[in-house]
Amino acid sequence: MNNSDGKLTNSRVALGLLLLGFAFNFADRSIINTLGEAIKTDLSLTDTELGLLGGLSFALLYSVTGIPIARLSDRHSRVNILSTAIAFWSLATGLCALASSYWSLFLMRVGVGIGEAGCSPPSQSLISDYFPPEKRSTAISILYLGVPLGVLVGSISAGAIAESMGWRWAFLIIGTPGVLLAVAIRLILKEPPRGRFEADAEASQPVEIESLLQVLRFFWNRGGLKHIALGVMLASMGGYAFGQFLHPLLVRHYELGYTEAAGVYGLIGAISVGIGSPLGGFLTDRFSVKNQAWAAWIPAAGLFLAAPLYVLALAQSSWSMLLIILIIAGIGHNFYHGPAFAAVHNRVPARMRATCTAFIIFLSASIGLGLGPLLTGMVSDWFASTLYSGQGSYFASCVSTDTATTVSTNCLEASSSGLRYALGLVTLSLNAWSALHFYFAGRAFEPRRGHCQRNQS
Question: Which sign, positive or negative, has the C-alpha torsion 360, 362, 365, 368?
Fold first, then answer.
């Protein structure tokens, strides 16, 4: 095991390095959201194709390779796996600049997804061996601060680069520096002993543990954890849908430039996740000491609050009001990050943590990321074609390259309204549905139900 016998890295330094890995992860993953409208115009895409490019292309192998990588992380050096993954996805992001068509860009995004599958499972597993159970919700929530950091820096940089140099340069300039971070993590971060905070000394267990099927059966039958998994899946589905199409909405409906829209998009993500994720972790660590149900009920409350606020935000005619309401909605939406994964880590053996984390991420990626943007794009195209009041069909008149230079007001109104209606419908239903699963998970965690002990096996 890499460096496990030497002096461990300071826990704060370790968390900082892992946070930077998460930031690079989401910067490279989400710049497609900022560049989407420019790519759509350049390659003459529909919203459905844009949804495929932002969602399914990335999730296609990200979700499939995540579990085998996690199984390796439960047996071998998590530091080596993480550093290799960062280098791989960073190079793949840079190669997106060389894409000559929609499908070549699609395949490059598949490569990014393969690399990024090796980020979250080993990172979260490492955190659980750097921080004791009573601090894990907060630590994992701090890890998720990499999301707003990466989105903010990535989106603003990508918007500015795309407007001045073109979208291809944005991929190249933002993608390649991650290789340096991969080297730094490999040299600085030490591999901690597994299960070092667990009373039952699970670190002494043999490396060969249960089969994948046995691990997943254990997880699914563990009181409340299946509801945590489904809640994360649905919350991420709504979140990825909004993330994919918020920048296009700002450009189409509010008529902002690419750079200005990227700034608003990045600000919303940075503040909502930057406050919501650590606040959710803090509240969970504070209130779940006496009743573990709060580990699920706090995310449920945030998602119930967010659902109608997203719809209210989309009804605003001013982008500044949209900004304020979306930040409030996003804070509640992002309560679930730390509490959800900490609840899992506190209820499964140490050598199952990366695999169980990967299983949730599999659902989040394959269903959440794979279908969320795609579903929203399809609904948006349907609404737009239904609302279009010009001559001919919406797709023939508003999407083809032959008419791109003379798009009518009818096209712009249909495209804008269709996207707003789709985002409202999708986010309202998915957030409310997710909140219900977190509520049921809390019921299973309540002391009277006998599921309040954290380290059962």
Answer: negative
